[in-house]
Amino acid sequence: MTSSPVRLPHEPPVRPANGRSLRLGSASWLLRLRSATVALVLLAAAVLLMALGMRIGDIPMSVPEVFQAIIGDGSNHFVVMELRLPRALTGVLVGAALALAGAITQAIARNPLASPDVLGVTTGSSVTVVAIIVAAGSTAGGASGALAEVGIPLMALAGGLAGALIVYLLAWRKGLDGYRLVLVGIGVSAVFTNVKYWLLTVGDVTDSGRAMVWISGSLNGRGWEHVVPVAIALAVLIPLTLAGTRSLGALRFGDDTVTGLGVRMNLARGLMILAAVLLAAVATSAAGPIAFVALAAPQIALRLAGVGQPPLVVSALAGAVLTAAADLVARTLFSPVELPVGVVTAVLGAPYLIYLLIRVRREARS
After folding, report:
1. pTM value?
2. DSSP 308
3. Angle, to 10 degrees, between the axis of helix 224-243 and the axis of helix 312-332?
4. Does residue 9 form part of some domain?
5. Mean pLDDT per segment of 10 residues, for the chain of length 366 residues?
6. Where's it found, cell-wise (predicted)?
7. Is residue 160 within 8 Å of residue 122, measured between CB atoms?
8. Which class for 60: exposed (0-12), middle (13-18), buried (19 or more C-beta within 10 A)?
9. Does a structural domain hold residue 11?
C-alpha cells in the first residue's frame, strides 16, 4: 500500500523560485536569493555569537582582543586557541550537525515533530554512556581521564548507531514508512530512557552524578579532540546530503510521486536516514544530548527561507546560531555558575514544542 501525498503541517506557502540554477556534473541545485541572504545573515550571527562567547572566562576580553589572539597577537593566544575557540567551534558544529539531521528526519517522516530523538540516536547514546560510566566507576576514572577522551565518545557513537539500527529494523515492513518510523522510534526511545534512569538509580551516587553531567548536554571542557570528528562528519556528509536533495524533496510528496520521478524510494530513504543518524551520533558523542536543536532549527529555517521543506544549509546554520546563543546564555545567566547548554535549549525548546503540537492539531482538524 502506497502513501498518498502529504504536505508538511503548517508549512509556509511556497513562493515562485527566484534564483539561479547551479550544476555540478549530473547534480543541480536552485540557489534562491532569499535562502542565500538568510544563510549569510545566520553565518554572520554565528560568528558574532562565537566571538561574544569567547570573551567570557576567568580572563575577560574584548572582541578585538579575541580576534588578535586568534591571529597570534597578544598574550591571550593560548587561552583563546586552546580553551575558548575549541568550545565555541564544538558548539556551532554540533548545532549544525543536529539541525541538519533534524531537517533530513523531518523531510523523510513528513512530520515537523520528527527529530533524531525518534530515530533512537540520542537515547541510544545516552543509555550506552550511562552504562559505561556506572559500570566502570572509579576503576576506569569515572567520566574523566582516558574514559572521557576516548571511551565515552566512542560508546556514544556506537550507542547512537545501534539505537538507530534497532528502530530501522523494527520499522521495516517491505519498505519504510515515515510515520511508522516515528511511532517505532518513540517506543524504542521510551524503553532506552527507562533503562537509562534505572542504571542511574542502581549506580553509585558519584558515578550517577558524572553520568547526569554528560546526559545534560554540556560544552564545558571541550577541546580540539571534540571539534575534529564533528568537522569531518559535516565536511563529508553535507555534500552527500546536498547531492540527495532531489530525492529528499520528492519523498515529501508520497511514494507514487517518488516512483514516478525515477527515484529508488527505499534506497533514497535508507541513505538519507543513515546520513542523519551519523550526524546526530557524532554530535551527541561530542557534547552529549542537546535537546530541541534538531527539532526547532529546521522549522525556523523553513520559515525564514520561505520554502516548502526545511532547507539543509539554512537549517544547519540556524542550528549553529541556536547552540551558540544557548551556550552564551548558559554562561552568563547565573555567572559565575555555568549551566549545561542542554538545560537552556530544553527550557527554550519546551514552549516551542507545545506551539508545534497546537499548530499540528489545528492543521489536522482543518
Report:
1. 0.84
2. S
3. 160
4. no
5. 43 50 56 86 96 86 84 80 92 96 87 81 89 67 48 82 89 76 88 92 85 87 90 93 75 62 70 89 90 91 86 94 94 85 88 78 72
6. Cell membrane
7. yes
8. exposed
9. no
pLDDT at 146: 46
Q: Which pLDDT score, from 0 to 100, does residue 119 have?
A: 79
Reading the block at residue 208, the C-alpha cell is 550517577
H-state helical runs in 306-340: 312-332
Chain centroid to CA 327: 15
Nearest-angstrom CA–CA distance, 356 and 10 = 9
Q: Which pLDDT does position 187 carry in this prediction?
A: 92
Q: C-alpha grid cell for residue 330?
A: 548558559
Counted domains in the chain: 1
| Phi, psi values for residue 210, rounded to 5° | -65, -40
The strand pair at 19-24 and 27-32 is best described as antiparallel
Distance (Å) of CA 91 to CA 127, 170, 227: 22, 33, 9
Contact 327, 89 (CB under 8 A): no
Angle at CA of residue 314, ends 311 and 320, nearest 5°:
135
3-state secondary structure (DSSP) of residue 24: strand
Residue 164, classed as helix, strand or coil, is helix
What backbone torsions phi and psi does residue 240 show, to the nearest 5 degrees?
-70, -40
CB distance 312 to 101 below 8 Å = no
1 closest CA partner among 165, 168, 179, 164: 179
Report the candidate in 282, 300, 278 with the shortest Cα–Cα distance to residue 345: 300
The reply to whether 180 falls in a domain is yes
The answer to whether residue 16 is domain-embedded is no
Domain that holds residue 64: 33-349
pLDDT for res 3: 42
Name beta bridge partners: 28: 23
